[in-house]
Design brief:
By secondary structure, this protein is an alpha/beta fold. It contains nine helices and ten strands. A ten-stranded mixed sheet has the order 3-2-1-4-5-10-9-6-7-8, sandwiched between helices.
């Protein structure tokens, strides 16, 4: 089994969410022996010719130089913080421009296996809005992304002791399973695997004359649950074959995103791993609805896996 991740790109902005992401990156890179790259992108307007003309090329160069120095100063400070904890940083990268664009482009350039980024930890209705940069990076990156939000339960930044893998049989789900098995094996974590039957158990026809249809509906629902149990047993066997010692399966019923988040809280999972579509061009603006919802609502770090563009 190839080691994952060989190269981590940690995106920082000095926020509390970024500090949590930094602790997680330090823990993972130290435990797994991964390279750790650190990036900070100073915000600048898009480099359109009209904007350069409006402020003057000389003034534009001055502003760009100032932004680059600011980025270099901040990323250097973050590097020093990591080194004080004994964490080895392979390289630092000071970028200027839109942070989401620069992070995604740099991840491709250095061939990162994982982007680690922080996001705001919100409660109630406010949790529906995650940080704009992390949201965009999750949607556009070509490699897996681990989103970490500030949560006092994970202040020590230690690797997760329980990883929840959500599977559905897609190719992205298979990649998520490979990643979760690597992480669980490398960190000694328990691996919990869930698959949710997205079929409400309510009968479609409550009227007495539709008893036959109701019986067929119930029978089909039971068959679906049995098929998912067999599917989960197969995934457990695959995880054990990849070196994971403790693997447990959980059958879910209902809305996949809600059930995954609920189960993660019940297990007190330290990480959720699931797949999402890797799309190109305009299509990449639309994430898989389940993975997007889990990233927005989960209380623990969420790793979103995809299979290229």
């Amino acid at each position: 089994m190839s080691m994952f991740p060989e190269r981590i790109l940690l995106a920082t902005d000095g926020s509390e969410g970024a500090e949590s992401a930094s602790r997680m990156a330090a823990a993972l890179s130290g435990t797994l022996g991964s390279e750790l790259h650190l990036v900070y992108a100073e915000i600048m307007p898009s480099f359109y010719y009209a904007e350069q003309v409006a402020v003057g090329l000389e003034e534009w160069d001055r502003l760009s130089g100032f932004a680059e120095r600011e980025a270099r100063n901040l990323v250097t400070k973050e590097e020093e913080k990591l080194k004080e904890t004994g964490t080895e940083v392979t390289a630092i990268h000071a970028e200027v421009g839109r942070p989401d664009e620069r992070i995604v482009a740099l991840a491709e350039k250095i061939e990162a296996d994982l982007i680690l980024i922080g996001s705001r930890g919100l409660g109630g209705l406010r949790r529906a809005l995650i940080g704009g940069v992390s949201d965009s990076v999750v949607r556009h990156a070509h490699c897996p992304i681990l989103v970490v939000r500030k949560d006092e339960r994970y202040e020590d930044g230690l690797p997760p002791t329980k990883i929840l893998l959500a599977v559905d049989g897609s190719k992205e789900s298979k990649e998520a399973a490979r990643i979760a098995a690597n992480l669980a094996s490398g960190t000694g974590s328990e691996l919990h695997i869930t698959c949710v039957v997205p079929t409400a158990p309510e009968r479609p026809y409550p009227h007495s004359y539709a008893m036959e249809a109701m019986v067929h509906h119930d029978a089909a629902f039971e068959r679906a649950k049995e098929e998912v149990r067999e599917f989960l047993d197969d995934r457990k066997g695959e995880a054990r074959a990849l070196g994971v010692e403790t693997v447990l399966a959980h059958l879910g019923l209902g809305h996949p995103d809600k059930e995954v988040v609920k189960l993660a809280e019940e297990l007190d999972a330290g990480m959720i791993v699931l797949g999402s579509r890797g799309l190109g061009g305009i299509k990449r603006a639309l994430m898989g609805s389940v993975s997007e919802s889990v990233v927005r609502h989960a209380h623990c770090p969420v790793l979103v896996a995809r299979v290229g563009s």
